[in-house]
Amino acid sequence: MKGRKKVVTAMDALPARSKRSSPPKNRKGAPSPLDRAMGLGGRPRIETGSAAIADLGTAPSPQPTMSEREALDRIDLSVDIAPERGLLLTNPILVASGTFGYGVEYGEVVDVQRIGAICCKGTTLRPRAGNAPPRVTETPGGMLNAIGLQNPGVDAVIDKYGPIWQGWKVPVIVNIAGESIEDYVEVAKRLDGVPGVAGIELNISCPNVGKGGLQFAIDRDAARAVTTAVRRATELPLLVKLSPNVTDVRPIAKAIEEAGADAITAINTLSGLAVSSDRTRAFLGNTYGGLSGPAVKPVALRIVYEVAQVVSIPIVAIGGVTNLDDVLDFLACGAVAVQVGTAIFADPELPVRLGDELRAECLRRGLASYKPLIGTALPKRTGTPSAKGAEYRP
Ligand SMILES: Cc1cc2nc3c(=O)[nH]c(=O)nc-3n(C[C@H](O)[C@H](O)[C@H](O)COP(=O)(O)O)c2cc1C
Fold first, then answer.
1. Which of 21, 107, 310, 339 could form a disulfide with 94 if both were Cys (CB 3.0 to 4.6 A apart)?
2. Percentages of the chain per state (helix, strand, coil), in multiples of 5
3. What torsion do the CA atoms of 31, 95, 226, 197 make, to the nearest 10 degrees?
4. Worst-scoring range by mean pLDDT, 12-26, 74-88, 322-336, 364-378?
5. How many C-beta neighbours within 10 Å does residue 63 have?
6. Distances (CA, A) of 171 to 7, 116, 348, 363
7. How many domains, in total, are found in the chain?
8. Which range has the worst mean pLDDT, 136-140, 158-162, 213-217?
């Protein structure tokens, strides 16, 4: 009998290198993490392996003793990811835009106040219904999504969530998107000074209507122009999120820094495609989708590694984080903080647990802070930036 080819799912890839971060069992009858993450209630379709998401097994961890607890509490995980304006986080583990709703959806399952910061769903000037379904599908080691920035619009976000966020200890960074510079500027202006909004993350992976649909993120001048305009429109800490869908990200990152961004976040999803099961069309309603999850981590690491050598503003890394080893890898490549995205769908408590694990790792290594872990894998040089990596690009 011929052996069936094993379908590798995102979840197969989860505990790849570390036994740490074993996720807890899904509570029976609790709302699905995926539902919460989408923020708007609709459960997206997962084509394969979704059963694997539901039950991930429990690994009880021993409780620290009182003296260990005190030693752990003394370890400094704080980081200011926008030193010029001040965006101080109690720890460097954030949640990525589009994977944690507006934070409120998780209140019953996660202690959201223990997360470093929340990047909320992509927010636009006017409400958006998003793309036609299907909008997501699982892939080997990840998923494709084409949600299409479904959101109620900036005014509704401010009215509904601002008063809640205002009472929170955890900073909320609003991820914003638009089709023109004017869109971005208007959204930033409306968020400026809103209590509960700690910063803005520019999602520039959107088609620029003024440039015939070309993404802001793949054009250095467009990235510079949108960053400059938003910088003038707000005093809020400004993070700009890089797209991996470029040949060389470094000139774009430099332009963003020169335009006044406080920090760079990297990376957004990789452009991808899935085919329908009868192979008569593209599977997703939007044809293309964004690839995320463990499969994208090496790409994200390469980009963080390259960008860290050409900018001096902080870098917040994102892409395929599922365990502490991933966090340590991104720190070693120059990131000062890390966002967790797709892995939250399987394990909403992961971001909080990673903060605890990073603390324990510092204690184990005799470190008073996690800062010595940053940049250890970067080339040791003082001269011109390294071009390492360029030779491997197709
Ligand atoms: C369902 C879904 C929705 C997303 N929505 C947004 C968004 O609105 N804005 C944004 O900048 N990134 C969005 N992203 C990208 C993530 O924030 C993150 O950059 C990417 O998924 C890579 O990280 P990961 O591999 O840990 O998921 C979304 C990702 C997913 C999976």
1. 339
2. 30, 15, 50
3. 80
4. 12-26
5. 7
6. 39, 7, 18, 26
7. 1
8. 213-217
Which of 38, 93, 95, 97 should be mutated for ligand 1, with most atoms under 8 A from CB?
97
Asked whether 203 lines ligand 1 (CB < 6 A), one says yes
Domain CATH number, residue 76: 3.20.20.70
Give me the phi and psi of 176, to 5 degrees please. -120, 150
Q: Is 150 in the pocket of ligand 1 (CB under 6 A)?
A: no
Is there an atom of ligand 1 within 6 Å of 264 CB? no
Residue 314 in domain? yes
Residue of the CA atom closest to atom 11 of ligand 1: 203
Give the pLDDT confidence of 62-89 residue by residue, as tens digits: 788 888 899 999 999 999 999 999 999 9
Q: Is residue 372 part of a domain?
A: yes
Whether ligand 1 lies within 6 angstroms of the CB of 296 is answered as: yes
Q: Does the residue 8 lie in any domain?
A: no
- 98 CB within 6 A, ligand 1: yes
In ligand 1, which atom is closest to the CA atom of 320? 25
Distance from the alpha carbon of residue 96 to the mean position of ligand 1, in angstroms = 6
Residue 22 above 60 pLDDT? Answer: no
